[in-house]
# Entry
Amino acid sequence: MTKEIKVGSLEQVSPSDSLLNTVQSKKPITKAGNRRTKETNSTAQRSSQNATEDKHRTILIKSKTDDYLKTLATIYGTSVNELVNKALDDYVSRQLQDEDISSKIKLLKKITIKK
# Structure
């Protein structure tokens, strides 16, 4: 019983070419053996006009509300983050329809605070 030992190729390949070939290959990246990485559903991603302008906020949500959000996210096949963003977007758009609030927002945007 003989064991076959594979030796690296004798071809001269630069590290940059090797990296480019790895990046350009369509194979899924594997982790720890032969397990594949988890693929995500692209429809669940938030469609933002400019993703670099998205902000992180930390908010405290009541436990019961969080349970409902998780259940609704499961039903709609989306994330809790997406549900919260949609609810906030709807709320803000309703507030902007109020002329009094809309004029106050425009006024506040004109004011510049120097630090």
In short: The first strand starts at residue 30 and ends at 31. Residues 46 and 85 are 8 Å apart (CA to CA).
